[in-house]
Amino acid sequence: MARRTTHLIRRLRLGAVALFGGASLVLALHSPAAAALTPSHLVNAYTTIQGAPSQGLSSITYPIRVDSQPNASGYFFAQSFFFKGGQQAYTGLQPRPGGGRAYFSVFGEGASTADANCAPGADGGPGVTCSTSYPYTVGRTYHLTVRGAGGSKWEGVVTDTVTGSTTHIGSWTISSGQGLLDTFSIQFTEYYLSVANCDALPHAQAFFANPKGNGGAYTGPFSSGLTLGTCKSKAGYTISGSGLTTVTGG
Fold it and tell me: Is 190 inside a domain boundary?
């Protein structure tokens, strides 16, 4: 099950939950230990693919290159995308000790799957979560693609731009009323595990190139971004003509 958050429209966890120690005893001479915190979203940035047909897109490719990350779980480098009917989904990469995983999931009622890589439910609510083991290489560009698979079925794949190999992440079906893909996307870097404090947030850096619609027929630059959450002082980003760079942790 994916341990992450992407309900960016309905809810953004802008800070970690603060936990406080219990009532002080009369004889207690020490302060309670500081509680751990969960940084959650650190950087969000926004793109709109330009010149696309008004009915939407049949596919979107999100190029991503992770340049630095810990050899451990915790980070999520991802893209949240939407359908014309408003339903939200995401695709992204997460590091693991000695490897990694690729994710492709959708939120909300009306989603179903028969894919062996997928299971019902998303982030504790309705939807479908799909993932597969994917030991990606730091410093290499990958293409995360969402594409129509017939009717209202959608497939997520990841392509290694060096080897040319494409790996199936998962697939799910949504209501036909959702239509095609919207041109708007949110790229984000998240840390979903708890840390003792913001200084303990591991260093990571990723580059998100401008997304491409319908096999590269359309593209769109990043328009804006923001740092957020309890540890936003440990996050930064730059936007160029070719894409977005996020730098987080210390």
Answer: yes
Write down the pTM of the prediction: 0.87
Specify the number of domains making up the chain.
Answer: 1
User: What DSSP character marks residue 112?
Assistant: B
In this structure, the number of other CB atoms found within 10 A of the CB of residue 23 comes to 6
| CATH code at position 167 | 2.60.120
- Distance separating alpha carbons of residues 29 and 223, to the nearest angstrom: 53
Expressed as residue numbers, the domain containing 120 is 40-248
Q: Which residues of 67-94 are buried (b: 16+ CB within 10 A; e: fewer)?
A: eebeeebbbbbbbbbbbbbebbbbbbbb
* 173, part of any domain: yes
Task: Give the β-pairing of 88-96 and 99-107.
Answer: antiparallel
Residue corresponding to tokens 């509680």: 35
User: Does residue 29 lie in a domain region?
Assistant: no
Of the chain, the percentage scoring pLDDT greater than 70 comes to 86
Q: For residue 57, what is the DSSP state?
A: B
How far apart, in whole angstroms, are the C-alpha atoms of residue 16 and residue 5?
Answer: 12
| Tens of pLDDT, residues 46-98 | 999 999 999 999 999 999 999 999 999 999 999 999 999 999 999 999 999 99
